[in-house]
Write a structure and sequence with these properties.
The complex is a heterodimer of chains A (about 550) and B (about 375). With about 550 residues, chain A is an alpha/beta fold. Chain A has helices at about 65-70, 95-100, 115-120, 130-150, 165-175, 195-210, 220-225, 250-260, 315-325, 350-355, 365-370, 375-380, 400-410, 430-440, 460-475, 485-490, 515-520, 530-535, and strands at about 25-35, 40-50, 55, 80-85, 85-90, 100-105, 180-185, 215-220, 230-235, 240-245, 275-285, 290-300, 305-310, 330-335, 340, 360, 445-450, 475-480, 495-500, 500-505. In chain A, helix 15 (about 460-475) links the parallel strand 17 and strand 18. Chain B has one domain (about 40-320): ABC transporter involved in vitamin B12 uptake, BtuC. Chain B is globular and about 70 Å long. Classes of the chains: A alpha/beta (about 550), B mainly alpha (about 375).
């Protein structure tokens, strides 16, 4: 055991009762937690070294959030011990956790939208009946925190006016203001753009260098490799391994998470593009506020190819998808399917798009693609409820719909295999499979896919990617929009980069580097990227 | 994050309403006791007054008929995510259509008048629901605001129509001419002597038919599917290609038409003429009925029976116990509406905790309906 040297690979696993436990900010010893039949945490041993960034990875349902909820006092463990700075504590609630210096930044922000940043920071920590002195003190403290950790914010800005990245910064400031030494972040980058994520990582490093301890819960291996010092892998409620990040690699972590070998790289043959199936001509789309978000965009997608649209979130991709799929009216332009113009205007445009043979896997499955309060089989016919396969006349043949749902559950390995279960009770990956099964099994000519693997765990990502490739190889035209550059690069046969509502460049995924694409995504690239690609081909 | 699990279905639709109802009666009992009366005697008077004999039960059913219609009106709209509080106005103004048809066809047998009166009531009531629906679908005016305003508009129109148009010359009371006996709908008592000459009439069968119809519409038709999708998630409904504005207009029309059936019951079945304020706030009681009945036809049937019994039993109460005035009866009815309608979720968390204790303690590995899920 090399517990004396902080660089020891296995030293983070357990201090093995050594006297020198003060190296660890948090120690969890034999933590168990059951929810009815589900053993959410079993015999968890975890030691978090002070002044480190410790990542916890695992698939959805592996027990990460439960473990952190126990540490933060949301749940009480059935058995086990929590030590903070070497001293055992029974953490009863989040107030108690905060008093011990443990702060949490939730996945979904807990902010009052129409309060200022300053007001949000002191909310619940006002130390006086009059707000004035508290606000004054908080203002000074914010200035100090901003200086110490380079966490600049405008204290008087209203939350609903600032970006998501800034809102998250406010959550971090809230925890620090309350004296947190240990900061737990639950899937912090899920809502951030790549540049906002980079900024977050910079802040986290800064915090670590000043002696704070960071626990990062994520299922993105990229982030683990980029920011953490140690990483613990959870699977089915247990910690399977704790490693020093520099001693491991994404492939090993993926294998530990899933329990089998996982292909992170998508295996696909060369594309054989055929006739043009989808063509978009001079499309102009406005958002709900009347701001033009898609500016004169034209492109085509051929049979048997995947065209990927890369770009930082919010550059018009969502509006483009919604418009082509008939959900949002277009201000100008034409969308053709097999050469025939689609009539997409009006609030039932999506219906006509579907009838013409265009299927759509939306960016946000819970907001758009599913009615989460419905049973699984009901979502399995969403958008196709008027199809004659589900009965004659106005009546719905429920048995036929359920039968079909059962077949799809089997084919797409949707778990749990119960078509009568409420959709909200399926995990993110399985919800995505429900949407994919519905849209793909109709055998559409054109498939539009937005963020296919957002919030989906690794095992399901592999499956989803393979399904998309299979559709391509079956001669379908696929339009893929994703903010995950890796996903675009590994799936697409052709990459279009969108910036500020326009297609600013096209790239060949085989030759384009991340840097090229990144520059184009930032609006710095030019319209003839091939020259750049040739010049900087070896850049990375 | 909460460790509370949803209640089992039977507890949600049976136990919770019973607890709420019991509490309403206990509080009512305290009020009755406070003014020096015997709560148990009052309860006996209400129950006896509602169910004691065919005469009483007939009146209970008559009130229930109205509440079924207005409860369904609220429930249909609720499934599409719309809160129609204009049931009163829709039921009221539908009387215009019903009386016009009934007076025009009064020389014909009632079974010819009945279906036409239904259509006329549905058309006028439906129109009164359609307009707020159209305003929301096309102009973004919220139906909660517009339907409640339409209640007042309907009330004003009805006073004008009854006093200035429908009232025959030489009649002092503000009411229309009487329908000739041929055009009147028979009371159920004419076929089932047990009901004697109570106001319950053929419209009750129409109400039962509407319960079945709404069940089929909501859960077994493509349109019902589309409207539930809209009710749960409007964005997903757009994604599915449904025209949300079209659904909103159709559902509001249906809702108004259901409320309009109250006019059939009142005008052709009971009053045989158009009088002022015959709806007697049945539209608002419908909100409580739909809430308590969980927007499900079976629940609405029982809730409408309960409120029908309260109205009828309450009316009897003031005769049995003279110390309890008519106003006192209104207080008791209000308490029931308060506990079963407005505060129907008050005991849910406590009950969930209680069920949680029982569920966890004895059999930790009992099969759970829902697999554990991390959010």
């Amino acid at each position: 055991m090399t517990s004396a040297t902080p660089s020891g690979a296995s030293s983070a696993q357990r201090p093995s009762g050594a006297a020198d436990t003060s190296d660890f900010a948090i120690e969890l010893i034999k933590i168990n937690k059951r929810f009815g039949p589900v053993h959410a945490n079993r015999d968890i041993d975890l030691a978090i070294r002070r002044g480190s960034v410790h990542g916890i990875v695992g698939e959805n349902g592996a027990g990460k959030s439960t473990l952190m909820s126990i540490l933060y006092g949301f749940y009480t463990a059935d058995s086990g011990e929590i030590r903070v700075n070497g001293t055992p504590h029974a953490i009863t609630d989040s107030r108690h956790a905060l008093a011990l210096g443990i702060g949490m930044v939730h996945q979904h922000f807990m902010l009052v939208d129409n309060f200022s940043i300053l007001e949000n920071v002191i909310l619940g920590a006002e130390d006086n009946a009059l707000l004035g002195p508290s606000l004054e003190r908080a203002r000074k403290e914010l200035v100090r925190l901003a200086k110490d950790y380079r966490l600049d914010v405008d204290p008087d800005a209203i939350i609903e006016d600032v970006s998501v990245g800034t809102q998250q910064r406010v959550e971090i400031l809230k925890a620090l203001y309350r004296g947190a030494d240990v900061l737990i972040l639950d899937e912090p980058t899920g809502v951030l753009t790549p540049s906002e994520a980079d900024d977050l990582f910079r802040v986290l490093r800064e915090l670590r260098d000043q002696g704070k301890t960071i626990i990062l819960i994520t299922h993105k291996l990229r982030e683990i490799m980029a920011i953490t010092d140690y990483v613990s892998v959870m699977r089915q409620g247990a910690i399977v391994e704790t490693l020093k990040t520099t001693d491991t690699n994404p492939e090993q972590l993926a294998e530990l998470m899933v329990g089998r070998r996982v292909l992170l790289r998508v295996e696909k043959g060369p594309a054989h593009p055929g006739e043009v199936l989808l063509s978009v001509e001079n499309l102009v789309v406005k958002d709900d506020l009347g701001v033009t978000r898609v500016k004169d965009v034209s492109f085509t997608v051929r049979a048997g190819e995947i065209v990927g649209i890369a770009g930082v979130a919010g550059n018009g991709q969502s509006e483009l998808l919604e418009s082509v799929s008939g959900m949002r009216d277009q201000s100008a332009g034409t969308v053709r399917l097999k050469g025939t113009p689609l009539s997409l205007q009006g609030d039932d445009g999506a219906h006509r798009a579907r009838q013409a043979g265009l299927a759509h896997v939306p960016e946000d499955r819970q907001r758009m693609g599913l009615v989460t309060a419905f049973e699984e089989w009901e979502n399995s016919i969403l958008g196709y409820q008027d199809d004659p396969a589900y009965g004659k006349g106005p009546l719905l043949d429920i048995e036929a719909a359920r039968r079909e749902a059962r077949e799809r559950i089997k084919k797409f390995d949707i778990r749990p295999a119960n078509e009568r279960l409420k959709t909200a009770n399926f995990s993110g990956g399985n919800q995505q499979k429900i949407v994919l099964a519905r849209e793909m099994e109709r055998n559409p000519d054109v498939l539009i896919v937005g963020q296919p693997t957002r919030g989906v765990d690794i095992g399901a990502i592999e499956f989803i990617h393979n399904q998309i490739i299979k559709m391509r190889d079956a001669g379908k035209a696929i339009l893929l929009v994703s903010v995950e550059l890796d996903e675009i690069r590994s799936l697409a046969d052709r990459i279009l980069v969108m910036f500020d509502g326009q297609i600013v460049g096209e790239a060949d995924p085989a030759t384009a580097t991340e840097r090229d694409l990144g520059l184009m995504m930032a609006g710095i690239g030019n319209k003839a990227p091939q020259a750049r690609v040739a010049a900087e081909g070896q850049g990375e | 994050m909460s460790t509370l699990r949803p209640l089992p279905r039977w507890a949600d639709i049976l136990l919770l309403p019973i607890i709420n109802l019991a509490l309403a009666f206990i509080v009512s009992g305290i009020v009755v006791f406070a003014i020096g009366q015997n709560p148990l005697a009052a309860l006996e008077a209400i129950v006896g007054g509602a169910f004691g004999n065919g005469y009483n039960f007939g009146y209970t059913l008559y009130y229930s008929t109205n509440f079924i219609f207005t409860g369904l009106a609220v429930a249909v709209a609720a499934h599409a995510g719309l809160f129609n509080i204009g049931g009163n106005g829709q039921a009221y103004i539908a009387g215009l259509g019903v009386i016009v048809v009934a007076l025009a066809m009064q020389a014909l047998p009632w079974w010819l008048t009945f279906p036409v009166a239904i259509l006329a009531g549905a058309a006028v009531g439906g129109f009164w629901g359609f307009v707020p629906g159209w305003l929301q679908a096309k102009r973004g005016s919220h139906v909660v605001i517009t339907t409640i305003m339409f209640n007042f508009v309907a009330a004003a129109i009805m006073v004008y129509m009854v006093v200035n148009v429908l009232k025959p010359d030489g009649v002092l009371a503000p009411e229309s001419a009487m329908i000739a006996p041929e055009g009147r709908m028979p009371k159920l008592g004419a076929f089932i002597p047990w009901f004697k000459n109570t106001d319950v009439n053929f419209t009750l069968l129409l109400a039962l038919g509407c319960l079945v119809g709404v069940y089929v519409l909501v859960w077994h038709t493509r349109f019902g599917y589309a409207m539930r999708a809209l009710g749960h998630n409007p964005t997903a409904s757009t994604y599915a290609g449904s025209s949300n504005s079209r659904i909103i207009m159709i559902v509001m029309t249906l809702s108004g038409a259901l409320a309009g059936m109250v006019a059939v019951n009142q005008v052709v079945g009971v009053q045989y003429r158009l009088v002022l304020d015959y709806v007697a706030d049945a539209g608002f009681v419908g909100i409580a009925v739909a809430l308590m009945g969980r927007n499900h036809p079976v629940g609405i049937l029982f809730a409408a029976l309960l409120f029908g019994a309260l109205y009828q039993g309450g009316n009897e109460l003031q005769y049995v116990i003279p110390g309890l005035s008519k106003e006192m009866v209104v207080v008791i009815q209000a308490l029931v509406i308060l506990f079963t309608g407005a505060m129907e979720g008050m005991f849910r968390p406590g009950l969930q905790r209680l069920f949680g204790l029982f569920a966890r303690a004895p059999r930790p590995d009992a099969p759970a309906a829902v697999a554990g899920k991390e959010s």
